Amino acid sequence: MTATVNRRTTVHRGRTFTFDLENISLSNGATVDLEVIRHPGASAIVPVLDPDTVLLLRQYRHAVGNTIIEIPAGTVDADETPESCAKRELMEETGFSGGHWERLGEIVPVPGYSDERIHLFLASSLKPDHQDLDHDELIEVLPVPWDQALRMVFQGEIQDAKSITGLLLAAQRTGHLSVPGLANPNIA
């Protein structure tokens, strides 16, 4: 299955992403017009404060018209790697820096209309640092016990896809969630 781009028109170039209209031909012969958001990518972090506590954020998100619970995250700048973005965002949003970093994976949150990829990291051995919020960020840092964070995921209190995925991957990695048949590298 493949596609050929026949025509691409940039409708809007924003601060973070580009909105394009693309006319494509699919390998089955169909031709279709699509709206595509081109995104530079992002990094998201599951910060582990101590073996039993994870840091979450309560943040106002205008697009959904509400305050939501999520993990720290941000857009990868042109001059940085996903890991350096994760380190910067952790410090800026939580006021902590991570001493130990592990890559958890990568997700494509909305492949139907965007090429965004979110790189997921686990940060531990946290040290207090200087929180440096952007002028448009309204964030409250919440230390939450692992069992409560997982309950929040399974009860629908956390609805953000990157946060659900990051928390479940990190919980499996740290031994707070057991998945039958899946080896856990941190459990003997």
Provide a compact summary of the structure.
With 188 residues, the protein is an alpha+beta fold. 19% of the residues lie in helices and 43% in strands.
Tell me about this structure.
The protein folds into 2 domains: about 5-40, no CATH class; about 40-175, Nucleoside Triphosphate Pyrophosphohydrolase. Helix content is about 20%, strand content about 45%. The protein contains 3 helices and 12 strands. Helix 2 (about 145-155) packs across helix 3 (about 160-175). The longest helix is centred in the C-terminal third of the chain and has 14 residues, at about 160-175.
Write out key terms for the chains shown:
188 residues, alpha+beta, Nucleoside Triphosphate Pyrophosphohydrolase, 2 domains, 7-stranded mixed β-sheet, 3-stranded antiparallel β-sheet, 3 helices, 12 strands, 43% strand
Number of helices: 3
CA-based shape: globular
Examine the secondary-structure arrangement and name the CATH architecture of the largest domain: Alpha-Beta Complex
CATH topology of the largest domain: Nucleoside Triphosphate Pyrophosphohydrolase
How many individual domains? 2
Distance between the termini: 43 Å
Helix-strand topology string: EEEEEEEHEEEEEHH
Question: What is the residue-averaged pLDDT?
Answer: 95
Given this structure, which CATH class of the largest domain is correct? Alpha Beta
Rounded Rg = 19 Å
CATH superfamily of the largest domain: Nucleoside Triphosphate Pyrophosphohydrolase
Q: Structural class, from helix and strand content?
A: alpha+beta
Q: Could you list the spans in which at least 5 consecutive residues all have pLDDT below 50?
A: none
How big a fraction of the residues is strand? 35-45%
Query: How is the main sheet built?
Result: 7 strands, mixed
Helix content: 10-25%
How many β strands by DSSP?
A: 12
